[in-house]
Amino acid sequence: MHIDHDHLGGPCQDNCHAHVHTHADGTTHTHVHQHSDCEQVDHNHTHGQQDGCSHDCANCATPHTPMEELTALMRYMAGHNAAHTRELAELAKQLEQAGSHTAYEQVMAAVSDFEKGNLRLSAVLASLDA
Amino acid sequence: MCLSTVYQDKMDSSSILMKNVMRIECHGGQVILTDLMERKLTIDGELEQANLVDGFVIVKTAVPA
Question: Do A76 and B36 make contact, defined as CB atoms within 8 angstroms?
């Protein structure tokens, strides 16, 4: 349940606007919201799920620091890149099986470059975790 | 596959509902977004478009009765 919010901008098309609001548990979020009767910037109101949005703060009990979020994103990116690298290597194999040995070699060279980049990311992650 | 940015109704910077979304569930007229940090956002509406190449999703919000 939202208990209060401040507007970040004026009314826009379709009566939607961005705002910050604070939940009963103190958690603050920013997002875009829509009201059918919103015609001015300065107004106060409370709203709930009937307005078309709600936050489940069950998992917000322990707020994440910006560094924790950045590290999580870096960890995701490193894993994601590794998955793409494996997919590229598989693609290279298929190119060779299709008779394109030169293309296979070029793609595998790209795979090697990807792996170097992933190693660099892993090193950064290790330093952040230290 | 890739993380997505989810927009409300239209794709512009002022309509971003959530970034780095890793999971989207649709149940009974609600769209439930979960980001990389496991934060959840529930919207009354429906999935309008999901572009898995460019990593964006548009949710059409329900108009309150």
Answer: yes
The length of chain B is: 65
Between CA B34 and CA B40, with CA B35 as vertex, the angle to 5 degrees is: 40
Query: How confident is the model over B1-26, as pLDDT tens digits?
Result: 589 999 999 999 999 999 999 999 99
Q: Which two tokens mark B6? A: 């989810």
CA distances from A90 to A82, A84, A99, A105 (A): 13, 10, 15, 12
CB contact under 8 A, A51 and B17: no
What is the rounded distance in angstroms from the CA atom of residue A29 to the CA atom of residue A18?
10
pTM of the entire predicted model: 0.65
ipTM: 0.80
- Number of independent structural domains in chain B: 1
* Structural domain of B14: 4-57
